[in-house]
Specification:
single chain, about 80 residues, Metal Transport, Frataxin, Chain A
Amino acid sequence: MPKTPRIRGREAVRAFERVGFIHTRTKGSHFILKKDGHPHVLSVPVHQGKTIKPPLLDALIDAAGLTMDEFIELL
């Protein structure tokens, strides 16, 4: 299994949008993403100049129903 990439929030949002998640709203600095027929809502932190911590990114990828390889291809 590949190592979790160090990416910023906007890069993660773009990757999740490529698999059908839609940015529905923003709460503070968190983008809320939804997908029709998907049981989970993703809350991605988008902080200026900061990367997402690996454990949080792992949890978001898992909640989206993706593998690490699939997510890396989306980047």
